[in-house]
Amino acid sequence: MSPIARAGFLAVTLMLSSNALPADTTDDPYIWLESFDGPEAMKWVRAENQKTLGVLEKDPRFEAFHRDALAIAQAHDRIPLPQIIGGQVYNFWQDADHVRGIWRRTSLESYATSAPAWSLVLDLDALARSEKANWVWKGVDCAEPAEQHCLVQLSDGGEDAGTLREFDLGAKRFVAGGFHLPHGKQNSVWEDANTLLVAREWKRGEMTSSGYPFVVKRLRRGEGLAAAHEVFRGKPSDVSVDPATYDDGDGHHLTLIQRGVSFFESEYFVVDAKGVRQLSLPNKLNVVAMVRGRLLISIAEDWQVGATKFDQGSLLALDVNELQSHPTELKPVLVFAPGPRESFNHASATRSALLVATLDNVRGRVFVYRPEADGTWSHSQLGLPDNSSVGIVDADLHGDAAFLGVAGFLQPTSLWSANLTQASAEKIKEVAPKFDASRDVVEQFEATSSDGTKIPYFIVHRGDMPADGSNATILNAYGGFMVSNTPRYSGVLGKLWLERGGVFVLANIRGGGEFGPAWHEAGLKTHRQIIYDDFAAVARDLIARGITSPRHLGIQGGSNGGLLMGVEFTQHPELWNAVDIQVPLLDMLRFEKIAAGSSWVGEYGSVAVPEERVFLEKISPYANIKRGVTYPEALIWTTSKDDRVGPQHARKFAARLSEYGIPYLYYEVIEGGHGSGANLAETAHTNALEMTYFTRKLMDN
Length: 701
Description:
The chain is of the alpha+beta class. It is 19% helix and 34% strand.
């Protein structure tokens, strides 16, 4: 399957004609800020940036924060994350000398040493200079089974839209006359070494209401885009239509088309010599990997097959030959079923086995699963550190090499090499500590939400922390799209916050995937208030335990977590003294009309549905700012190049605060896509601004 798949939430929407949404823009004086890069909007942005930088960059602590953040971001002792291609290890690397980055490679043997012998494959800085573009690396997909010709995706400035170019690994150069797909939101996969399946905007306007392609065509080597032959056509009301290919180490090859028809629901079609045929699969699932002729899927809804019921959250296997022969008569086999506090996280295949990462009460586990001759699956657990986040970094489809990442709040990120034959793992690389954690501890507590549900959260703090409510605390959460928040090591957070006596809290509120699909579904659409109640419950629990107090409590979240911050800002301004709102959604009455917003109808609901509109108006941060209310001074930041959520939400929210005379700080990164910057230097600058803000608000008397 292509790793260059469209970035963004895997979500679907219903088609909304322009008159389906309420014509309420006449009451919104800041519609002009929705102009993505309009001159008046950008003039406003630059003026706001100047004001905010005049406050935060002038703080006497900013310079040291920035220096430390930049040193951590560009440190040479970072682990070069491996990608196994053609039996070699590839790595994309950025540092002070390679701002945009270099793509390089070494052997598996050399990579395992402390000083790998890297060979340069592609210099993105040199390419950007020669082509006068701000190229940002977006990934690579190589044709199976030789893995010598690859599609490299580059984005100008970091937006989701990008270009695709064919690259020859042996020659270390782009292929003259090879595949070249110009700028756009697109997805492509190798059907074979000389053929691509491509989803893109073939004709002007031929995109879904969410801004993604719905037409897939077959493009053969040497043909121009105009000669591509249509294979599949979805509908403008879909979120997107994406081709995908799956291969295993035994030579099995499977091509699928995924058609998103509602938010987390998709139809799947097999593409082969018999044509395009729909598979009889449940609509809520993800295709995971393929091993030994079995296709692995994780289901997010119960699936009844004959007399057998498979519970949501399970991992199942389908025989590929049977799937192609009888696409409507599938016979799934159970591989993994989660327990009450477990959830499937992700998986990756080697030639002979499947590595499965799970969560057990928000703690990482990894298992090795093998298909047996009788159709069952055996498994064994790898011995890895407890109380950590554990993830599969990469696995060799044509061998048995695999790499795992392990990290904790106080445990520097380490890389482990897995021995699948012995079901063991060995640590081969570890980041040097970026801060002094000798006085810190990690605990896990639970808060009781408004409906009595126990909400777990992690807290990182000094072992001798006083329980007098005086501790400066940052509370972080996401709460949506089945995204799981797990322990992670952050040198910047540790150096700039924990070392200074700050406390960090990570809340596992509903809407995420920490406990499987049901944990996510509890907060969908008009049930979403429970997510916000969960977050407030954690805050109150922290206060009740004497860990912090509203004077010293700050909150932080981005994207959907930015919406969470906006809601908490308006619903509970009395609980916090700092609110860091990152690349957010905030205008929930117009989110469907901004960037890729209409793709998230299944998560949030739609203003076209009366009861959902009533709820969205009730919780929309932009609609619920009130005059005369005392709010904390928020830091709101976004990026001009964000073509996923869009900077419009943050701009309008700040403008409304200004209108009402409510203090705020606003900053917009001019580059960077849906994140904090287009390169390490920009990210470090944004991090330093945030830590300066929190220090001013929560630590200063």
